[in-house]
Structure formats: structure tokens, C-alpha cells
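Q: Sequence in, structure out?
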Amino acid sequence: MKQRKKNAAFLGVRFADGTGSSIIDYCKGFLDSGYQVCLFCDSDNNGINDKKSELKTAG
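A: Exactly. Output:
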């Protein structure tokens, strides 16, 4: 606030912790509720990596 920059929340951005291995389902929940989703995640879990394309297809 001292730098007079806009807070992400005022720009419609919300950060969320996807709780590890359930991140894809967590994002789908936001999509199903009408929100746009941008996911940043690491790739050390092959189960999640396999589901990333599924999430891209969903929205």
C-alpha cells in the first residue's frame, strides 16, 4: 500500500492453495462455479501431470 500499487484482490484475482494432489479437482470446482482459472503448479507428481490436459479441456 505504501507503493500505491493496486492489490490483486481489487483486480479480481484470488490466490488459492490447491492442497497438493487434489489441485485439479480444486480448479474444476472453480470452473464449475463460473470462475476463470489460471493454474501454476510444479510437475513432481505424475498423477497431476496426467490430469493437466484434462483441466485445459475443461476451460
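Helices lie at 23-32, 46-58.
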